[in-house]
Amino acid sequence: MTARRAVELGIKTIVVAVGLTIIFVVGGMVSGMAKAIPATAGTAAATAPAGQPGNDLLLLFVASLVQALVVAYLVLESKWNGWKTAGALFLVVLNLWAQTAIESALYLGGHVSPSMSVRALVMGLVVAVLFAPFAVWVLGGFRRATPEEPVGYEGSAQPVRWSAARWAGTLAATTVAFVVLYYLCGYYIAWQNPALRQFYSGTTAIRTFWGQMAWTWSSTPWMFPSQAGRALLFVVMTLPAVRMLRGGARRVALGTALMYAAWDGATGLIMPNPIMPPTVAHTHAIELVVWGLLCGAFVGWSMKRGQVAEPAGTQVAKVA
Fold first, then answer.
1. Can you tell me the distance from the alpha carbon of 129 to that of 134, in angstroms, rounded to the nearest whole number?
2. Is 320 among the domain residues?
3. Residue 224 belongs to what domain range?
4. Which end of the chain offers a freer environment for a tag, N or C, measured as fewer CB atoms within 10 Å?
5. Within 10 A of 188 (CB to CB), how many other CB atoms are there?
6. pLDDT value at residue 43
7. Inter-residue contact 291 to 255 (CB < 8 Å)
8. DSSP string covering 23-78, please?
């Protein structure tokens, strides 16, 4: 990539970030997300310093910039173009808000209004519908023709056709990995913060990992199948974006890891949070980044393993 192309790409990525910031604000207004946070929820974040509107907007832009950088990488690495790429990004963005709706219902029932889940889905639809085609358009995804990447097992020129059994096995493996990493990161990163334990359980007491798992199984046994369902939804909704990435297993694993880390809700937790204290939000952000990198890498590798890497001759320079 030439210096001029790099500068052009940088400018376009900033434009995407600015657009995402504006679209996020529009989505919040349309969905009425602020109404889903009762006034009493402020007591949970009483220790948070009063935020300045300018600072809040700057943090929103920083979060948007991180997500825009990853989106730029995904579009540049895509072997698709146009609306096909936009459709994959639409599902990635919508998945973030679908997961927010599920998490709110499972863990934040005492801190937010029952309408939170519905409002989160509405906001997700608005943001995804507006942002996905906008990002692809700005980054040149509608103006280039990219040939499909030849796909096959090493040593074979035939396209890979996964059997139903292989699809089922891969989806099962990625779902299990999602849940296992979710609880490992949740316990060894998030749950080590006494303020976080106080926020969710009302006490700073801590059990061993297996003791916590046993307690969860005995008190809320429905939590495990619900997390498995959430995991499957997450993998399925991000699958088109994984499949659109060019390259071999390691390259796709990298792209998927970045996608999961940037679009799993971590970036939004750097902003002032009216629901939880800053230390709780920031601990969750670290937890989600680590989880996203690990789980995303495994999902990307699982979906691409056994396929040939893209021959160097098929790589096409993107239209900046």
1. 9
2. no
3. 3-314
4. N
5. 12
6. 47
7. no
8. HHHHHHHHHTGGGGS-GGGGGGGTTSPPPPHHHHHHHHHHHHHHHHHHHHHHHHHB
What per-residue confidence (pLDDT) applies to 274? 78
Confidence of residue 146 (pLDDT cuts 50, 70, 90): low
Helix, strand or coil for residue 193?
Answer: coil
The number of domains in the chain is 1
List, in order, residues 6 or more apart from 228 with CB less than 8 Å away.
Answer: 175, 179
CA 264 to chain centre: 3
DSSP 8-state class, residue 207: -
Residues 213/183, Cβ–Cβ less than 8 Å: yes
CA distance readout (Å), 142 to 136, 137, 286? 7, 6, 35
Alpha carbon 30 to chain centroid, angstroms: 22
Residue that the structure tokens 């009762």 belong to: 38
Alpha-carbon distance values, 56 to 103, 229, 280, 285 (Å): 23, 34, 18, 17
- Between CA 291 and CA 181 the distance in angstroms is 6
How buried is residue 6: exposed, middle or buried, by Cβ count under 10 Å (0-12/13-18/19+)?
A: exposed
> Mind giving me the DSSP string for 137-175?
HHTTTTS---PPPP---TT--SPP---HHHHHHHHHHHH
pLDDT digit string (tens) for 250-292? 999 999 999 999 998 888 888 887 788 899 999 999 999 999 9
Q: Is residue 319 part of a domain?
A: no
Say which amino acid occupies 136: V
Which one-letter amino acid corresponds to residue 91?
L
Query: Within a domain: residue 301?
Result: yes
Mean pLDDT of 67-74: 96
Position 244 in a domain: yes
